[in-house]
């Protein structure tokens, strides 16, 4: 089966998933295409983001994407970047777009400076998904507030009982929800300085940064709203967590019923991880289709070019959005991650932590077991998700479990599945392309008896 997401390929024209940070996803019923908007990233040598103004990628199938350029008008970008007596905002963050009431709405963040809690969320509108988008107004304004208040970044939209809400914020004060006017997309109380209601904040004993990058979706099949958020250091040990509630405004709780407002970080669904990889999907000098070259023993050559790239796992998956696809009628989760190859590692002596600098967008399938979401272990590549029985996942394989409090890299270990125990009602089994090894693999995703999310891979074939 085809593998379209390639590592070690930083040319956005050839590999559109690269340099996508904080990606969103929108289905456009007019053009019948998917559009993913992301944070401004400047990589002129790779043909990306020739100007400030929100990059966008389009797709017909959620597998093959095309980089389309930026969507804000020059006027909108200049207005959004204007910080008065302070230097201009260099780039805009974490956009979210939707098609509603016959117009395209794009919410995006403009901050005073990196690491500042003084920011604004703008709403821009357009007649088409590629823009140009023109500013309608400010939705949230946290300028002049201190770090105990929420940060006006990371917008996401959810609806409940005929009301429209903006979800936003970061580890400065937590995640907040605020009602908007459905007709205009602007604040219902017409005051961008009003903050709304806190729905998540960091527990006092938590050692990870966060939460941030929040998004909420309602799932009719379960009757719950799900709040997804990220904890950890953005450049290395970022993760994805979730809580749920019967109401958009909360309260959101974890699998044990602990409140996400200071009691729990939520159920951890993904973090930095490393499966075994004999044939990771990468671009090589000799072979651009993502299949690594073979050495004399028939094994893949992990050092694929002169810069010494070598498989190092997936680092820091996070800041994503849940997405319901009305075409396939399936749920997905779209997030960025970082290539864990050591050639991409930069160590900050002052902060005493590492960062992995090359990032990509990944579309993952999302399923629900016992009322909780779980992610597919492999990127979505157009598979049909035909369900398999536990008997079809017997034998030796590899697996990993995401510990709730430990954000270090999770390595896979050998696992055995001899019977159906633990895989009835609380897991999903299917076959899909194997990103790490090529061929097709049987995968299992679920929540174990301890309330931890886990992934397993069985019977992979090298091709």
Automatic annotation (TrEMBL):
Keywords: Glycosidase, Hydrolase
Compositionally biased tracts (Basic and acidic residues): 284-305
Residue ranges, annotated region (Disordered): 284-311
SUPFAM superfamilies in the cross-refs: Arabinanase/levansucrase/invertase (SSF75005)
Pfam families for the chain: Glyco_hydro_43
Gene3D superfamilies membership: Glycosyl hydrolase domain, family 43
Source organism, top-level taxon: Bacteria
Pathway(s) where this gene product acts: Glycan metabolism; L-arabinan degradation
Family listed: Belongs to the glycosyl hydrolase 43 family.
Record-linked PANTHER family: ARABINAN ENDO-1,5-ALPHA-L-ARABINOSIDASE (PTHR43301), ARABINAN ENDO-1,5-ALPHA-L-ARABINOSIDASE A-RELATED (PTHR43301:SF3)
Protein name in UniProt: Arabinan endo-1,5-alpha-L-arabinosidase
